[in-house]
Amino acid sequence: MQQGRAKLATCLVLMLGWVALLWLLEGVDVITGGALDTFGIQPREPSELVDVVPAAFLHFGFGHLAANTLPLLVLGFLAALRSGIRRFLAVVLLIILASGLGVWLTAAPGSNTAGASGVIFGLFGYLLVRGFIERSPLDIVIGLAVGAVYGSILWGALPMTAGQVSWQAHLFGLLGGITAAFTLRTRPHPALSSPSLPPLN
């Protein structure tokens, strides 16, 4: 019981700390007149590859950040709680790389992309399929609940999305989360398991 509470507290502190960092960075960006916006991803520029990770922690205004805060907090907490901190961090890194590289490869020329929405879509995809991959009834229920609450965000991953929304970040983040659920599963795939040897007579 005490161990469970400690895990809950650790996951909550982790996500609150992450969100606090995002708000701090946006505050610095506003105070400096948008100096951090240069760390957004501008597509197909080789020098911009170093911004793939930093871009996931930056936003274009407090409104942009506020829209991402609650889903990041909720989905991140659930993913960390069910996966463990180490696996969760690996999942997030894979999502960030998939989302950022997808933006770098496919975003419109002259665009500048930043924000945690790619991570949000990735965590959504991860939680949605993880229970089926792990064959865990509880995680299946969590995935179905996440799908019911946040399923409408999938529209944001379609290329028809207009305006300043980066459907590329959303789509590749989603694919990154699903990939992470497969590659970082705790239960080995039956086809990959070593066949049992017959007993020796």
Give the topology, please:
Layout (H helix, E strand, L loop, with lengths): L1 H30 L30 H22 L1 H22 L10 H18 L2 H14 L16 H17 L18
Helix pairs in contact: 1-2, 2-3, 2-4, 2-5, 3-4, 3-6, 4-5, 4-6
Give a quick account of the main beta sheet: strands, pairing sense, barrel closure.
none
Question: Would you identify the CATH H-level superfamily?
Answer: Rhomboid-like
**Span between termini:** 47 Å
SSE ordering: HHHHHH
Oligomer: single chain
Q: How many beta-strand runs?
A: 0
Number of domains: 1
Mean of residue pLDDT values: 92
Strand content: under 5%
* C-alpha Rg (nearest Å): 19 Å
Counting helices, strands and paired strands, the structural category is: mainly alpha
CATH architecture field: Up-down Bundle
Provide the low-confidence segments as ranges.
191-201
Q: Please, how many helices?
A: 6
Task: Describe the fold and architecture.
The chain is mainly alpha-helical and 201 residues long. It has a single domain (2-187), classed as Rhomboid-like fold (Up-down Bundle). It is 61% helix and 0% strand. The chain is built from six helices and no strands. Helix 1 runs antiparallel to helix 2 and helix 2 packs parallel to helix 4. The protein is globular and about 50 Å long. The N and C termini lie far apart (47 Å). The relative contact order is 0.14. Residues 191-201 have low confidence and may be disordered.
